[in-house]
Amino acid sequence: MSSNNKKVWLGYLSLLMVTMGILFAFSFGNKVCYGDVILTKIGLKPWANGNSGMHYTVFYSLIFFIPSFILGYKDKNNLVAKIGKIISLIMIILILLVFPVFGAISFK
Fold it and tell me: What is the three-class DSSP state of 67?
């Protein structure tokens, strides 16, 4: 595989990881987020106090967002990698700065 093809795939991997992180961290509609289901299946708690309190799944999603940012940062010329980098940077900022303030409030 040539160096050019490898960089293209790294860009798509960055975007794929962002997508996985979003699917892992957020629920869509009235459904449980996929991250909650996965964490429960492997024996980890997705919530601090049952179904209320701090939602740990959002922090676990950093496992996807941080590598995605790094891959996008490494390949500055690939448009797909740039998109993955920008989206992952926005998500990292939201998780680390905004969520601890508003996520600690239980709405249930």
Answer: helix
Q: Which of 95, 27, 51 is nearest to 103 (CA)?
A: 95
Token pair 């860009």 is found at 11
* This prediction's pTM: 0.78
Between CA 33 and CA 26 the distance in angstroms is: 5
What are the structure tokens assigned to 33, written together? Answer: 């987020």
β 52-55/47-49 pair status: antiparallel
Give per-residue pLDDT as tens, 40-82: 899 988 877 766 667 788 888 999 999 999 988 888 788 888 9
DSSP string, 23-54: HHH---TTSPPHHHHHHHHTT--SEEETTEEE
Cβ(64)–Cβ(18) under 8 Å?
yes
Mention every residue, 6+ apart, whose C-beta is less than 8 A from residue 4.
none
